[in-house]
Amino acid sequence: MGEEIRACISGTDGKQSKYHERRPFGSIETKPYVQRIVFANSFDSIRHLWITNQSAMISRPMLHTFHKVISTSQGFTIGTSPWDESCKNRRRAAATALNRPAVQSYMPLIDLESTVSIKELLQDSKNGEVDLDPRAYWQRYALNTSLTLNYGYRIDGNKDAPLLKEIVDVERGVGNFRSTSNNWQDYVPLLRLLPGTSNEANSFRKRRDVYMDRLLSTLQDQIKSGTDKPCITGNIIKDPEAKLNHGMLSRPFSTAFDANMLLDEIKSICLTMVSAGLDTVPANLIMGIAYLATPAGQKIQQRAYDEIMKVYPNNDAWSQCIFEEKIPYITALYKEILRYWCVIPISLPRVSIHDIEWNGVVMPAGTTFYMNAYAAHYDEDHFDNPQEFNPERYLDVKDGSGTPHYGYGAGSRMCAGSHLANRELFTAFVRLISAFKFTPPVDPRDEPATNCLEANALPKSLTMEPKYFKVGFKPRNRQLLDQWIKESEERTKDLM
Known about the structure:
By secondary structure, this protein is α+β, with helices and mostly antiparallel strands.
């Protein structure tokens, strides 16, 4: 996949097209009797197609397993929907609910959930004496943030709560069916005739229906009884005629919606919030912790702690990170994590709605495009020494330098929740690094795999699933940490 672009293309007449030419942007391969498909494999080629031509690259293809099996009951997420008026309405609603001013109003939730996870890490590690697998703690952090935003509901109990485990397991399974490489029946229609081809997909669909229907019906019952908490979906249900206007942003948890939004569209927004809560934030947090705990990561961890203390010498980073993002090194750290581990290595495909011209070659409307984000993130023509984990590459970057990475996609359909995800990552790392020194595990068998490809337990899935590992969480100052936790619990007691 070293070329900038690869394509598998044929015309309706089955003849080889002129795509089988060497062009300045790299080699393009063709195959007859298949759909036009383009793989972009360099940072600059993705920028040209996804950003420069974003108005043309706005739709999604329909894939058999995900769209016609998995999604038959709950519908499509916003990110997997083909472009139409309904998708436009849903995306506009999500973008308004997740813009910068709105995200700032959600920070009390992130205050609560980060505190809950860190307190449980402290307890379960026996004050740093026991190494822990951090994965479930931070899956809950991200999922509970999304659930509370969308339903006014959070999963109580510890990291082993049954509902948390079920949602994580099902969404991981659904991720396999969203994968671009895991479902041959998406590309070979004859395979759909074989008995049992869709049995597993249908099983995950039914399991997902149970908790999705339960979450929505619980909210509807709470609204009827007047016991609901402010949330995105509650606002839609109670105020379906809300119009897009700036004034709504001053209300906590407020958003704006088209007056004709239907139940199916509400379900789509709900599904998006639940699945998005587990797509990127947990894996990036977990792999960041894994690397910082390694011998190679100790220097970066110490630099991060020193930078926190430089900005907040009075030990108030824990509380101030809820209100502001003013530690450039921590921002650079999570950007490098998003680049280095590339938790969605092959992004969801796009379908062009207009012709796209590139170096004299016209790629016609209806072409399917795949972003090889992994190849772009390790593109030596764009990044110096991309195999090295180095947050400093994102320090002192000039304004207007463009997209720093493709961790959230790019262009017109990039992740609408990127502002929320960034604040979740920033807050978690500021608090974790302030609270603990991460150390390698005592047992060498618990050491993490930190290579981007080797660390993935499910390499054929859409999203990265970090492999099992453990690290030590040694409190830096137990008295201060107890004080920070107590103050956060007091601030957020009404959200529990």
